[in-house]
Design the sequence.
């Protein structure tokens, strides 16, 4: 049974930083891409960042480029999202996702991900 558990969300002022983590279990983590998505109230879920199975390539939404950094530790089965220079528009529930395809790339497509965590809330005040 695959399980993804996010942590690290919270309330932060604009300009501040947060680090989200996602711990995975139940699958050979290191063979699959990982992604972070977010969903604000009344909006569709949107892509934030992704990292290929090897960690050799990453992909970011234009809205977070230069501010967010995704990384993974395959030995610990974790993926992290370092978020700097946070803005009120970053407020959302953040979800980590485990890739569907073996040796997958850092896709921005929700269909490329098979398992999802429960989400962690990030609130950025102005």
Sequence:
């Amino acid at each position: 049974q695959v399980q993804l558990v996010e942590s690290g969300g919270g309330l932060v002022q604009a300009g501040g930083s947060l680090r989200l983590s996602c711990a995975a279990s139940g699958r050979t983590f290191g063979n699959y891409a990982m992604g972070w998505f977010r969903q604000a109230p009344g909006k569709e879920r949107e892509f934030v960042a992704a990292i290929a199975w090897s960690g050799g390539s990453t992909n970011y939404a234009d809205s977070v480029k230069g501010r967010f950094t995704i990384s993974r530790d395959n030995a610990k089965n974790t993926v992290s999202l370092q978020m700097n220079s946070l803005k009120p528009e970053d407020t959302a529930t953040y979800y980590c996702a485990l890739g569907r395809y073996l040796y997958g790339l850092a896709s921005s497509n929700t269909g490329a991900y098979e398992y999802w965590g429960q989400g962690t809330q990030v609130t950025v005040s102005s």
The chain has a mean pLDDT of 96.
